[in-house]
Amino acid sequence: MKESGRKALLREHRRENIARRLQRKPRSQKVSDFVLGAIDGCVTTFAVVSGAFGAGFSPLVILVMGFANLLADGFSMAVSNFEAVDAQRKHLAAARRTEERHIALVPEGEREEIRQIFANKGFSGETLESIVTTITADRELWIETMLTEEYGLGQERVSPLVSALVTFTAFVFIGVVPLTPFLFSSLEQQVQFNISALLAGLMFFVIGMLKSLVYARPVLRSGFSTLLLGGAAAALAFLIGYWLRALFGIDSV
What we know:
Elements: H1 3-12, H2 15-23, H3 29-54, H4 59-105, H5 107-119, H6 125-136, H7 139-149, H8 160-175, H9 189-215, H10 219-248
């Protein structure tokens, strides 16, 4: 590791900086929802554009197909995300009720679960008993510990409606970008498609860079990775459209 990198790590691990970092709230789920919607919106819409262009469809048909797909798929994805987050929230609530009931009915059994959980982590003797006593003395801490250790559930409270709205907004906002060149009828269709491809590529790269903030990956590598994957999806759609056009002898529509 370079000396400058080591110095930065040492600075991050000073007592006051550790305390500040641990008190910081986890990164909002909204960022993940936005990245999810944005990537899918751009990939899906530009795939439609590429497939329709490869099939020889007119700009008007491309716009109709693109906007219909944009709204329908965006809504579908938002609903799917709503259901997924809602199911996760209900699972967490059910697990919490279960633990509350168990602690009320069989507290000694639940204490033994805490004891075995931390014994498996390597604690023993007086240290282990001190941990058990400390945790079980605080009912809320006891429940939260069981949810994390036994069920593997995080404690972040996420609103299904907010997640769905963020996903839909990102899907539409980013997904509409590849369609904008086809709104300018004064441009030749090939030029429209070229501009659409450039805009889509830019969106893929920017979204990939944003994704790196969520998953703590190198910024440029994440940008190029998303660009490559999005471009591959678009190229596949174009080839299928072009192949079907040749297969069925479709003229420009």
